[in-house]
Write a structure and sequence with these properties.
This protein is an alpha+beta fold. The protein contains 19 helices and 14 strands.
């Protein structure tokens, strides 16, 4: 087994060789450190869509300045410092960037809460207290994310305290103070999560929730933790809580998304990828950044300048989102293009209001292009607003209806009977105003879910509280059956509306779901 000192010396040797033009050494460095950079950047940026760009820029800057590294045995700390600076530059640019408004009749431009916590839970298949610890990160302050990301890598055995403290410009005492603060807040958030999940829930805690929108935040962690800390009922839920560092010990890195695989990145950086080679024949002009990095890589790897520069352009123009293949298998990774260097015509989008599904539309598709993702926006759905019935794609004679205030699946023999059976909902812009949707019944009440990640769906009168508006807002993804849509909760984006065998409609999470999850979460919008 190699020791830590042995790893440092081996990496230093690779750095020296790469700086001297050894292509194999450069490839080895990129392959070895890409997962670490991705995890640091991804967690610090909370899984933002720009993660792939910042990771790429970090690696390009490292390669571009490799010859200037005077102490090759400090390569790991040096690379982490570059990643930290890139994250800070991104955050600064984001604060000064104008935020465009959202149109009313569009699908959400990005999944609410589709964050690095989701990726960690799903890709590492976490459960129990490890999953709880990851979910607790959503309740931290924005300023804590950088420290969280670096300390997480320390607790998982990927960095030492000296590695990341130096990269962050901290002395050991300052680093310890920051880590202590993050650990304390994580512990508080875990206690809040347990109190919220308790069944039955503490009545006094429930009285604090009507104004909560259901989304984790630092402000609500502070507010709810004050009650949890002093309440004997809620305090019991925090018994037998394993310290966070004990849960993170030996935890694997979150795997790279397919679009950021080591093979693709290496092919791009060295100009050896097939896509890169073909790009050189298109006559595309590389960007300034690509050209500068291409000159460095050409010098280090002796690769042709045109190949290297065009290869970098391919990566920068075709960054890939991370996704999951369908509700029926939420752990299968798929790559979904986020941006394209060459504009391509979009495939036609099936109309959600088509009166009858075709034979092909009732068969769950094996194609990952019909899958809901946790990072990419769904295509715009034309004509969603207004009166519609929601039909079960796998059972075309059944629609979402209401029985004694509960949402259930109701049979309707033909389209003419939809109104008579009160199966028509008016689809409105989401009550949370996010570009998602709400569903108003003829009696003026709205469909809403009643659980944090799982719970029955019912009709409720809008009391204008933030919690109700969040519970009554649903966003759309492509369903598992061609031409359909799946509805996920605004404040629980990994949970979808699903009808059960007994006909009841529930909000249920996609993780560890049974094989019928995909078909039973797929609906068609039918205009009366």
């Amino acid at each position: 087994m190699r020791t830590r000192e042995g790893e440092i010396q081996a990496d230093a040797a690779k750095v020296r060789a790469a700086a001297d033009g050894d292509r194999q050494a450069l490839d080895s460095l990129v392959a070895a450190y890409l997962p670490l950079v991705y995890n640091i950047v991804g967690r610090a940026m909370d899984g933002h869509a720009d993660v792939d760009d910042v990771v790429q820029e970090t690696l390009l800057r490292a390669v571009n300045n490799l010859h200037a590294l005077r102490e090759p045995d400090r390569f790991r700390s040096w690379l982490v410092a570059i990643a930290v600076r890139q994250v800070r530059d991104w955050a600064q640019a984001r604060r000064t960037r104008p935020q465009p408004g959202l149109p009313d009749d569009t699908v959400a431009q990005a999944d609410p809460q589709a964050d690095f916590a989701d990726l960690t839970i799903l890709r590492l298949e976490l459960s129990g207290q490890r999953r709880e610890a990851v979910e607790a990160t959503r309740w931290l302050e924005e300023a804590d994310r950088e420290t969280l990301s670096l300390w997480w890598m320390e607790a998982a055995g990927q960095l030492t305290r000296s590695d990341w403290a130096a990269a962050d410009g901290l002395d050991p005492h300052q680093a310890a103070v920051r880590v202590g603060r993050v650990k304390e807040r994580l512990q508080s958030a875990r206690s809040v999560l347990r109190a919220l999940a308790a069944k039955p829930r503490c009545p006094e805690l429930a009285q604090s929730l009507p104004t909560w929108d259901g989304r984790p935040s630092a402000r609500w962690r502070k507010r709810l933790s004050r009650h949890v800390r002093d309440c004997p009922v809620c305090a019991r839920a925090s018994d037998r809580m394993i310290p966070v560092e004990g849960l993170l010990g030996g935890l694997a890195l979150v795997p790279l998304p397919l679009g950021m695989s080591a093979q693709l990145i290496l092919g791009t950086l060295t100009g050896s990828g097939g896509a890169a080679s073909s790009a050189t024949t298109t006559g595309s002009s590389p960007s300034t950044v690509a050209g500068q990095a291409g000159q460095t890589l050409a010098r280090l790897t002796n690769a042709p300048m045109a190949v290297v520069a065009s290869s970098i352009l391919v990566l920068s123009g075709a960054g890939l989102w991370y996704g999951f293949a369908g509700p029926s298998d939420s752990r299968t990774p798929v790559a979904t293009p986020a941006r394209s260097a060459v504009a391509a015509p979009a495939p036609p989008t099936p109309s959600p209001s088509s009166p009858q599904p075709s034979a092909a539309s009732t068969t769950p598709s094996a194609s990952p292009t019909t899958a809901p993702t946790t990072a990419s926006p769904s295509p715009s759905v034309s004509g969603v607003l207004g009166p519609h019935a929601l039909r079960a794609a796998a059972q075309p004679n059944k629609y979402i209806g209401i029985s004694e205030g509960q949402a259930v699946m109701v049979k309707a023999p033909d389209a003419a009977s939809l109104t008579a059976r009160q199966l028509i909902f008016t689809v409105t812009p989401g009550l949370m105003g996010t570009g998602c949707y709400s569903f108003r019944h003829a009696n003026g009440s709205y469909l809403r879910h009643t659980g944090y990640h799982e719970g029955a769906v019912e009709l409720g009168a809008n009391d204008n509280s933030a919690l109700f508006r969040a519970d009554a807002t649903f966003c759309l993804r492509k369903g598992a059956i061609a031409g359909t849509k799946a509805l996920f909760a605004f404040n629980s984006p990994l949970s979808h509306l699903r009808y059960r065998d007994d006909g009841e409609l529930w909000l249920e999470p996609s993780q560890n779901a049974d094989p019928s999850y995909g078909s039973s979460t797929s609906f068609q919008f039918v205009a009366p």
